[in-house]
Amino acid sequence: MIMQLILKPQQGLHGTIQVPGDKSISHRALIIGAMGLGTTTIHNFLFSQDCLTTLQALKNFGVDISQNNETVIIHGQGLQSWHAPAHALDMGNSGTTTRLLAGLLAGRPFTTTLIGDQSLSQRPMQRIQQPLQQMGAVIHLTHGHLPMTISGQPLHSLCYQMPLASAQVKSALILAALQASDTSTIMEKLPTRDHTERLLRQFGAHLTTSDDHYKINIQPAHQLQGQTIQIPADLSSAAFFLTAASIITHSQLQLTNVGLNPTRTGFLKVLQRMGGQIKITAQSQENGEPRGNLEISAAKLHPITITATEIPNIIDEIPLIALLAATADGRSKITGAGELRVKETDRIHTTVEELSKLGIAITELADGFIIDGRQPWSVINPHLDSHGDHRIGMMLAIAALKCSAPLHLKNAAVVNISYPNFFQDLNNLLSQEEISS
Ligand code: S3P
């Protein structure tokens, strides 16, 4: 699908919007609910392609799941009731589904094969295989990638220092550790998103985190109990509109019920440091997850320097930070972000390749970029490409709002991975004359 993008809205973006439910929490609520006993009701579940991949996979293990509108209901019968799937399971594009399920399946008494699309089949899986093997798991990869075959085993406990910052790896190990013979310890060099830990506590697991958030102890779980979960709106999806409102003059937006877990709010801090006009109101907490409303208006932005320690907290928003930097009054530098090279695409390369088409002064580094926002934009190539990466596609649709020449986006439908109504929601925030012009 090639889409014509909207250019230069004169009046900016206006209105109030609640973006869809958090992707990371939706995956985890499904998986943990499916491990539990009794009913788990998930409100504001994200019905996107990635989360539906998790839902479908769980049904293949015999988990009874029903849905109505934005609610998913799991009739949990406990992990013991899971059975071997009848065929290899297709993980589609979803790294979160693959890695979290691999951790869980490492301790189940049956064999499962996981396959994925072209992008997922190139993403590294040794990062979970290696520590899971230390627990006694038997996992076969294909040259370090999918297809992956997991033959579940009785697991022993783990004491593991994470060599890289990854919430997916950490969560896989936690889900395995719940099935281990004794208490496990996982240590992180930099804290990553902790939705798994927060949700598991609500379901009754015994899991403690040190005060500095670097060390997690996980006791083998007695039976987890079904819960009711209210998923907040996804800050990573809200970030597209926060960026748009910041860089398009006259914009003023309110985003409601946005997840504000401190392991995810790095983007708000970066935007504030750049001079972004953002206000947080109506803060509350539910299911151990903070949330609130965000008010944002257009701002004059300044350059920024970002280094490794900040990266895990902004990992999915870095292409948007590159775009913000491309409108700032100076030179920005982002380093320590090598993990971007193993996302749905090599996001350092795709961000540089696509933003360069708009005449933006962006230079690729091994682990980041340098962006000079002082260089005026001028469209060099109007044929933009999402490269099959949802976050790159949506970032480019926001970048187009700053351009005057007609632009096209190849493979725009990939937004379905995390935000199926992205283009409708963007249109609703623009005035009607601007959409039809
Ligand atoms: C996610 C963790 C991050 C993030 C991804 C979702 C999660 O990946 O980039 O979009 O839900 O755990 P890594 O943990 O591999 O950094």
From TrEMBL:
Protein keywords: Amino-acid biosynthesis, Aromatic amino acid biosynthesis, Cytoplasm, Transferase
Pfam families for the chain: EPSP_synthase
Protein name as catalogued: 3-phosphoshikimate 1-carboxyvinyltransferase
Compartment list: Cytoplasm
Reactions catalysed, as given in the entry: 3-phosphoshikimate + phosphoenolpyruvate = 5-O-(1-carboxyvinyl)-3-phosphoshikimate + phosphate
EC number(s) recorded for this UniProt protein: 2.5.1.19
Name of the gene this protein is made from: aroA
Domain of life from the UniProt record: Bacteria
Domain (Enolpyruvate transferase) ranges: 8-426
PROSITE patterns: EPSP_SYNTHASE_1, EPSP_SYNTHASE_2
Active site: D316
Cellular component GO terms held in the UniProt record: cytoplasm
Biological processes per GO annotation: amino acid biosynthetic process; aromatic amino acid family biosynthetic process; chorismate biosynthetic process
Organism: Bombilactobacillus mellis
Annotated GO MF terms: 3-phosphoshikimate 1-carboxyvinyltransferase activity
Biological or metabolic pathway of the protein: Metabolic intermediate biosynthesis; chorismate biosynthesis; chorismate from D-erythrose 4-phosphate and phosphoenolpyruvate: step 6/7
Binding-site residues, 3-phosphoshikimate: K23, S24, R28, S166, Q168, D316, K343
Gene3D superfamilies to which the protein is assigned, alphabetical: Enolpyruvate transferase domain (3.65.10.10)
